[in-house]
Specification:
about 525 residues; Na+/H+ antiporter like fold; 6-stranded parallel sheet
Amino acid sequence: MDILTLIILAVALSLVLNLLFKRFDISTIVGYIFTGFIIATFFDYAKIDQQVLSELAEFGVVFLMFTIGLEFSLNQLKRMKQEVFVFGILQVTLTALLFTYLSIALFDLPMKSALVVGMALSLSSTAIVLTALNANGDIRRPYGRYALGILLFQDVAVIPILLLVSFLGKPSGSASEIVLGTLISGVIVIFSLFVLGKYATNKFLGTVVDSKKEELFILAILLIVLSASLLAHAFGFSYSLGAFIAGMLIAETKYKHQIEADLVPFRDILLGLFFITVGLQINLEVIREYFFVIVGLTVAILLLKALLIFLITVVFSFPKRAFKTALALAQVGEFSFAVFALAKSYQLVGNEVLQVLISVVVVSLVFTSLSVKHVRAFTNLFYQKPTEAMREPVGSSAISHHILVCGYSLLGQRIVEELKSQGITYVAIEHDRSLVEMGEKKGDSVFFGNAASKRLLHSLDIKNAIAVIIAIDNDEKIRLICEAIHSIDERIDIVLKVSDRREVEQLSDLSIKSFVNQNETVAKLLVGQALRCDIE
């Protein structure tokens, strides 16, 4: 089978499987893994260069770490100190130690192998859990806050875990030399990316944005991510570390939301490829031989991990909230595949053990896809009394119950001034960099981006907005924005300025309820003013 045939087969299978799984609310991650498994089981792909395929797939994790870096801000950490630093540290540390001990005591694994297994099993699925919590609104509930905090720490902990696996896999050199070399390399990488890159990145992106070519903006972001990854890799670190730091570097810029909206499709496609390569590693013979072992291990891991998370969180909270948090995070996450892949490259874990563990992770992910959306309903069977409401909402952005203003030209600026004068929370989106910079100087909440991007609208919490005011004159752009908003939720109220009834008729298929006819409104105001005049 040549590479083109493999690509066509993988795309076709993944589409069919994910469309089928969608009916049962199963995550696309599972569909991609099963795609790889079917190809590995029923088709001959031995002639494909596995090294090239694996390296390409690794960049799915690279882009995932970059987008995580975009969300990793100091303000978020301040708001969630307990959830991230107390719950997160306790969960990862205690879970890793527990499974390391069990791997040695029950399965007689060597210390290095057991440590790798323990660390990998301590991670949960950020992709599946946060997607489900965002979809059903539970991310704003108390247990959603707990889950988000623990997942945030896990995502950051992946970097030192991968570094530790690399450290365990190096056959030569004393520990002190390796640690010292790692520290020196780390200082160089961080200094290069943070100190030097911080100023260069803003100027570079500003120049690209001024070209007003969207494809050049996307190309510039890809260049930043890949260059940061290559720099980190050149000094002995993982590609993911460089991408994560690059994300943090851009997190405080005005381009953050648009970058996230543009890059997520690349990330998801490459992550799909990553999970397909995971599925390629699943051996049907191993599943047949160790079927009951895989099922037993999956059940045991889910129960032990849930119990441990429950015990950690119940000390600081209510049993019902701790129970829901434990159910949401009991599975083994997608980053464990990256840990296993790195451990395999260093031959730290035997292939047979890896096959069993990969199968366990896949089963736990399937279970989570089906169960995490029903955590509250299942918990209510055991706990009837509600716990108290959360102190503050948590989401990808720290805004809610706001008005979204699309466009920050003269009309948009006047709308923002009016909203500010009335004390109404707002967020404005503008695609002209000079206007964004003007808004920043005035202290207005203006983000750079394309208002027709659904991902950007999601990141600005449009579902919880009071309304959307479109302050743009371009008819084609207005239609694109309205279609994007209605594809998210048709109940979102849109307020739109039009020049005449012809524009209203052209947009009649979009079911927009609130039109402000510019000419009619101005005409009424002019007549009103005229009637107030004293005619002598």
